[in-house]
């Protein structure tokens, strides 16, 4: 454990996943999963396609009700649905999806302003100032009036990040943020993520399979396995890459001939 990891581990957990089992219909995808995420850390959820990364992501962001277990965020349990309690928890959370999910008919500024208009009663000039600040934080100042179709893939990812940051959440969730990006653009997004984490102390949970980005950004990771339906390894990515004696973990980090990974689109 390095110095930064030791400092983060001294914090109270900001997310606690306790004995979570989840799936779809009669099919169980993940079973009895437990772990903590500490305030201020960049935490990644890894694994090959179909291992349950997306299912766990949905449970943690209130999009899927677990069969058993619970997720506690900043002291409050989150449940799928429209309860007032869930709503208060989700205001502490920003979420970016793999596609970016920007509104195609809105400008970049209008997209970034959407959460502020939906959840606050701030005056228009205050919203405008916040939007400019958030776009500046992700390197998109000067592009406020462009539509999503006029942006590159990397710019759309950063625009989605600016929108997720609009309400100053304590936690940011990312679903495959590097999917479809070339290595140079991925590295730029890595730097943006690191800058926001270091300057604002925002906790980040990233679902990904992109090794270069994992090694550049993550403080700690868990690795899921499809057959086990659970966690088979956890620790720093460097520790798992260099010291794990589990062949499944070694194969993942060294991309062995056991099969290439792909973007996870199934549970």
CATH superfamily of the domain at 1-84 and 203-252: P-loop containing nucleotide triphosphate hydrolases
* Poorly predicted segments: 256-267
Beta-strand content estimate: 15-25%
What share of residues is helical?
A: 25-40%
Helices and strands, in N-to-C order? HEEEHEEHEHHHEHEHEEHH
Question: What does this molecule look like?
Answer:
This protein is α/β, with parallel strands linked by helices. The chain contains ten helices and ten strands. The chain has a domain at 1-84 and 203-252: 3-Layer(aba) Sandwich (Rossmann fold), CATH 3.40.50.300. Helices cover 37% and strands 24% of the residues. The strands form two sheets. The chain has a six-stranded mixed sheet, sandwiched between helices. A hairpin with a 2-residue loop joins strand 1 and strand 2. Helix 5 crosses helix 6 (153-164). The longest helix has 18 residues, at 183-200. The protein starts with a helix and ends in a 13-residue tail after the last helix.
Which SSEs are present, and which pair or pack?
Blueprint: H1 3-9, E1 13-24, E2 27-38, E3 42-46, H2 53-60, E4 68-73, E5 76-78, H3 84-90, E6 93-96, H4 108-119, H5 124-137, H6 153-164, E7 171-175, H7 183-200, E8 203-207, H8 211-217, E9 220-225, E10 230-235, H9 237-243, H10 247-254
Parallel strand pairs: 3-8, 3-9, 6-7, 7-8
Antiparallel strand pairs: 1-2, 1-4, 4-5, 9-10
